[in-house]
Write a structure and sequence with these properties.
heterotrimer, A alpha+beta, B mainly alpha, C mainly alpha, B: mainly alpha, two-stranded antiparallel ribbon, two-stranded antiparallel sheet, 22 helices, C: mainly alpha, 5 helices
Chain lengths: 336, 639, 199
């Protein structure tokens, strides 16, 4: 038992250390909100460890101590009964005080995490089976744009994510920034976070949402404010017109094969709403909601047979000839 | 039979008979008819209890195999053992099987077998309802598993959140199968709950006042009330889901005024008490085992009973903590934090009472006690991680991650399955007349204890490292593969411990050491009769003068005479002080419960395909019920 | 174990009434769980009421007369019901037969009125969430009504046969008891279905 305990603690300690550096770890706290949660998480873990050890110690001592012999199970041990009664009472009161104190600690952290700064930058995130639509809305419509799966926010400024769902319930969760919040069909929830340092923070859908729930990741990239502004200006532009013959043919095929019925490429006739906006697809790091890194090979494989990579997703297999595939790929890759 | 003869027979009572003659007469009226047709008519709570226990364990094995499949899939990053579609069916089937076909039924099964013995009566109240309950449970479980084998297994999680389970996002019959399985198992569970309540209220042996009821019986009484008050909520939920899917109602359709969070409220108003429906019987078992193996009555009987009742009440005030991240008002959520943490107090009090019992007793380290000691280490940890998830901010991080998977397996396996396996070792001699092998038992315990912790402790860390639940795979760069591999290895060891349990049962059934009436020198009434007990349980009803009757009375059991030996009779007594007031007839074996169950099954299965099943499915049920209750002219009815 | 007979229950009766019997407590338990079912259904209705800004959503409230008529019949049915109870406890076979026939007729009449009530709900179950909730609550109560009417009919038949034994009189009192539950459960539903949409 002792051996087991020690090895268990050793494993736990190493794991806790490794989890601090994890890509999607609650201990890799990089925002005001996640730091607050991490703080009380550590308090709770410490209290729990002490309580668990105390109970195990009481059990162990009870088992090893020498017992007064007893002829009959019902022989009374009056002194013991009295002492046990008061010990149980004291322990019960201690339990009550502990949980009430932890409730207060929890409530304090809850106020911090849910403190609402009205001056925040707003991003609307709409969950789809199985990807994230991201809308940046500005006062004038021509400054508003839509992208997918990769959210960029300014460092040091509070950001409000307005969460909605286009279909089933999803959950928006970037452990390094804050706790999760559900995207509930028919209502809008919000969650706020303030990134403290620049970086790319991975998130993932945390509410079971169907066949490809496992493949519904996204990133939040915190950028210095001027870089953030440059990125927004760039994203706000329409797609560049295809210039070379191959991408012109790619653009024609994109239209001809009906890709535009589901996907939007701003500045072209493609205006579909069912799939991710592809206006700046070539500036993204991953495809298919974090399923694969975006490179020519993966993108080609995806266009050729999306059902093989992510079975059940809405995009049908297109049965393209290889020259057609190359043209479309070439077109998409210049949508910087 | 002429009136005169009947009158004479009615006067034949057990007080006029010698022991052997009495036993023969009682056997004649209480035995289950022979042959397989006869066995289908059985209303003996022990026969049905055994069937219930075996069936529930069969579902445990099936659910456990699914768990092994999941662990193999997740043992490394991007493994391709299961397709996403199959994985989603598998985890849904695992959760649904374990919750609805194993955990709740197995606890009720032990109650069906042992509560009548512990309170000193000859059969459970409403024995035919009991038979019906078993058949419905069996048919419902088979229905779910047959559907799964035909690739119509539900794939929406054991919680079946709308709108994922709505017709729009789940065409086909998979979600209907889930919802109707709920109907089956809830009907079965509710029936047993009614029987337990009435058995405990009205059929306790003379003198078994409220403060002399064994703790396990108290636990099952509280559990039965939880079932009665929690399960209607899931019945409403599953019915409205089927209606939405089948006849186009709009309870959960946001476009027509419906609301998806209504489902979550209904589900968790049942779902949280459900945890206590599973856990409270486990604590009852712990109290029984500790008293026996510490060799003294459990310390703080009153505190334990009041804690059970308090836990029952509090369990209805926690459900919102499953919905902290659905965007509820913050102040309301924090109230549920406090109530969720407060339920630690009654559980804590029980643990302190057990610790005190062990301090004062002289523990005999047999397998049942080992499992209870394992229960302490595991359950306390699970309770503490429960306090953590009750906090809104912490829950925002760990909700729907492997941290929660670890937490509730610590609570449910630690709090219910470890005591349950301990109870199997403890009560196996009573059920079969043979002891389970002690050496295998020790191996069983250590494999289970080590396997369990290796399988589930790493999941806490995985959750904190960001691994969500219900994902069929993950990418290698997330760094989750080592801990997942460790967890899978532990799961295999844990599974092996159950294989050992089964082997032990099979070997000991014929070759085990013979158990006497009371092999552990325990104190409660189930040990006052032979092992296995005769069909009539007790040749005369015990008279109870102490909370631990067998310790108080020594070798001579005071009994009550005067019951008929010509017809099945049970003694009814008053609720508080257990004063006898009626010799009530107890039903004879009957085939009608089975026929009613078949008619009901036809109705339930038919109604996921067509609403007209409600029309053509009702008359057969009504006919079967009339057959069930129609007087047969036998003694039991005509008295 | 050896046994010492310390008490004799020879003289105890073989049946009782009310809380002395197992079936009465069984009925209590079923009433508890069914009452919980009604409570949950009412809560679901009120939840949908609360989350929608308009209620009823797309239809006028139900016509008042069928529900009101039904309520009146329910309340008045308590009188013959109580008489049946009294007769059963006195083993008055003639009285019980009369009482059961009257209660059967009242039950059948209520089923007919219930049909009219469905027809005058002014909405359909598949119109919107309001319609679904209304139909669900009313159908839930109708199953209880129909079950008790069926039970009453079977008991009535039994009491006209040789099976009219003392035990049966106890069954009659349990049936009386369950009918009271059906009546009491209806009263909040009447307010909910017929008056809540008019607030």
């Amino acid at each position: 038992m002792v051996v087991w305990l020690r090895s268990c603690l050793a494993v736990a300690a190493t794991c806790l250390l490794t989890s601090c550096s994890g890509r999607q770890s609650a201990f890799n706290a990089q925002a005001a909100q996640s730091e607050e949660i991490k703080r009380i998480l550590l308090i709770f873990i410490a209290v729990s460890t002490v309580v668990w050890a105390a109970v195990m110690l009481a059990l162990l001592l009870g088992l090893i101590q020498r017992k007064r012999p007893r002829d009959q199970p019902l022989d009374p041990h009056d002194v013991f009964e009295r002492r046990a009664g008061s010990a149980i009472l004291v322990a019960g009161i201690a339990t009550t005080i502990t949980v009430l104190a932890l409730s207060v600690v929890s409530y304090g952290a809850q106020r911090t995490v849910f403190a609402n700064d009205p001056a925040a930058v707003t991003v609307k995130v709409i969950g789809h089976q199985w990807w994230w639509e991201v809308q940046y809305q500005a006062d004038s419509p021509h400054l508003s744009f839509t992208t997918a799966n990769e959210i960029r926010v300014p460092v040091g400024q509070p950001v409000t994510a307005e969460l909605e769902s286009a279909d089933v319930i999803h959950s928006f969760w970037v452990p390094s920034l804050t706790g999760k919040m559900d995207l509930v069909t028919g209502q809008q929830n919000t969650v706020q976070f303030t990134a403290k340092s620049p970086g790319v923070y991975r998130g993932q859908c945390a509410e079971f949402c169907g066949a490809q729930h496992a493949h519904m990741a996204f990133t939040v990239t915190a950028l210095p404010p001027d870089e953030y502004r440059r990125w927004r200006d760039h994203q706000n532009q329409s797609a560049p017109s295809p210039s070379d013959p191959l991408s012109i043919r790619g653009e024609q095929l994109f239209r001809g094969r009906g890709c535009g019925l589901c996907h939007t490429i701003r500045g072209t006739l493609a205006g579909g709403q069912l799939g991710p906006d592809l206006t700046h697809i070539a500036s993204r790091e991953t495809i298919a909601a974090g399923t694969l890194p975006r490179n020519s090979g993966n993108l080609a494989a995806w266009i050729a047979d999306p059902q093989h990579i992510k079975p059940g997703n809405l995009m049908p297999k297109m049965s393209l000839r290889s020259d057609e595939l190359i043209a479309i790929l070439h077109y998409l890759e210049q949508l910087q | 039979m002429s009136d005169l003869a009947r009158d004479a027979a009615r006067h034949l009572r057990d007080n006029q008979l010698e022991q052997s003659e009495l036993a023969a007469l009682l056997l004649r009226i209480w035995h289950t008819p022979s042959g397989w047709l006869g066995s289908l008519t059985s209303v003996d709570h022990k026969v049905i209890g055994k069937r219930y226990i075996l069936t529930a364990f069969a579902f445990l094995i099936l659910g456990g195999l699914l768990a092994v499949l999941m662990r193999l899939q997740l043992a490394g990053a991007e493994r391709k053992l299961l397709s996403p579609d199959l994985y989603n069916q598998v985890f849904t089937m695992h959760g649904s099987t374990m919750m609805f076909l194993f955990a709740v039924p197995v606890m009720e099964a032990f109650a069906v077998y042992f509560v009548p013995l512990m309170v000193g009566t000859r059969n459970i109240a409403f024995p035919r309802l009991n038979a019906f309950s078993y058949w419905i449970f069996l048919f419902g479980g088979c229905f779910l598993w047959i559907a799964f084998l035909f690739n119509v297994g539900p794939d929406v999680g054991w919680f079946a959140y709308v709108p994922l389970s709505s017709l729009q996002y789940n065409p086909g019959k998979r979600a209907d199968v889930w919802a109707q399985m709920i109907t089956f198992t809830e009907v079965a569970a509710l029936a047993v709950a009614v029987e337990i309540v009435v058995t405990v209220f009205k059929q306790r042996a003379v003198g078994m006042t409220l403060d002399r009821i064994p703790v396990f019986v108290w636990a099952m009484l509280v559990t039965s009330f939880l079932v009665l008050l929690a399960m209607p909520s899931i019945m409403v939920a599953s019915t409205t889901l089927i209606l939405d899917r089948l006849v186009n109602t709009h309870f959960y359709d946001t476009a027509s005024g419906g609301n998806v969070l209504l489902w979550q409220h209904l589900f968790w108003f049942f779902g949280h008490p459900e945890v206590y429906i599973i856990f409270i019987p486990g604590t009852g078992m712990v109290s029984m085992i500790i008293a026996t193996f510490a060799g003294r009555p459990v310390v703080g009987y009153t505190i334990i009973v009041l804690s059970l009742i308090a836990t029952g009440f509090l369990s209805f005030g926690l459900w919102v903590h499953h919905m902290f991240v659905t965007g509820l008002p913050q102040l309301g959520a924090s109230m549920f934090t406090a109530s969720s943490m407060l339920i630690a107090v009654p559980s804590g009090l029980q643990i302190f009472c057990w610790l005190a019992t062990l301090w004062d007793g002289r523990p005999v380290y047999r397998t049942p006690l080992l499992f209870v000691l394992g229960f302490f280490a595991i359950f306390v940890l699970g309770g503490l991680s429960g306090v953590m998830v009750a906090s809104v901010p912490i829950d925002m991080q760990v909700h729907d991650t492997y941290f929660v998977v670890a937490h509730f397996h610590y609570v449910l396996i630690g709090g219910a399955v470890f005591p349950l396996v301990g109870a199997v070792y403890y009560w196996f001699p009573k059920i079969t007349g043979r002891m389970l092998n002690e050496t295998l038992g020790r191996w069983n315990f250590w494999l289970a204890f080590i396997g369990f912790n290796v399988a589930f402790f790493p999941m806490h860390i995985l959750g904190l490292m960001g691994m969500p639940r219900r994902v069929y795979t993950y990418t290698p760069e997330l760094g989750w593969d080592h801990l997942n591999f460790l967890s899978s290895a532990g799961a295999l060891v844990f599974a092996a411990s159950f294989a050992l349990l089964i082997a032990n049962v099979v070997l000991s059934l014929n070759r085990g050491e013979r158990a006497g009436d009371n092999p552990w020198d325990a104190s409660t009434l189930e040990w006052a009769t032979s092992s296995p007990p005769p069909p009539y349980n007790f040749s005369r009803i015990p008279l109870v003068t102490h909370r631990d009757p067998l310790w108080a009375e020594g070798v001579n059991l005071p009994v009550v005479a005067g019951l008929s030996v010509e017809r099945r009779e049970v003694l009814l007594s008053s609720i508080a002080d257990a004063e006898p007031h009626t010799r009530e007839a107890s039903p004879e074996p009957s085939i009608w419960p089975l026929l009613t169950a078949i008619a009901t099954t036809t109705f339930f299965v038919g109604s996921i395909f067509t609403p007209w099943a409600a029309v053509w499915g009702t008359p057969p049920i009504a006919i079967a019920l009339i057959g069930w209750f129609w007087p047969t002219g036998s003694k039991e009815d005509e008295e | 174990m050896k046994q010492t007979i310390v008490r004799n229950v020879n003289e105890l009766p073989t049946y009782g009434f009310g809380s002395q019997t197992g079936p009465w407590w069984g009925a209590m338990a079923f009433i508890a769980l069914e009452g919980m079912g009604f409570a949950v259904a009412i809560a679901a209705y009120l939840y949908l009421y609360a989350v929608n800004s308009k209620w009823p959503l797309n239809s006028p409230p139900p016509d008042l007369w069928p529900g009101t008529l039904e309520t009146a019949v329910y309340v008045l049915s308590a009188i013959p019901n109580q008489f049946t109870n009294r007769w059963a406890r006195r083993f008055d076979l003639r009285g019980v037969r009369i009482g059961l026939v009257i209660m059967s007729l009242i039950g059948l009449a209520l089923l007919v009125i219930r049909g009219f009530e469905f027809a005058h709900l002014n909405t359909r179950w598949d119109l919107d969430a309001y319609g679904s909730a209304v139909w669900f609550v009313l159908a839930l109560h109708t199953t209880h009504l129909a079950t008790d009417v069926g039970d009453t009919l079977v008991l009535t038949v039994l009491m006209f046969t040789r099976h009219a034994t003392p035990r049966r009189f106890s069954d009659v009192t349990d049936n009386v008891f369950y009918w009271n539950f059906v009546v009491i459960a209806w009263l909040p539903l009447y307010v909910l279905l017929d008056w809540a949409p008019r607030l």
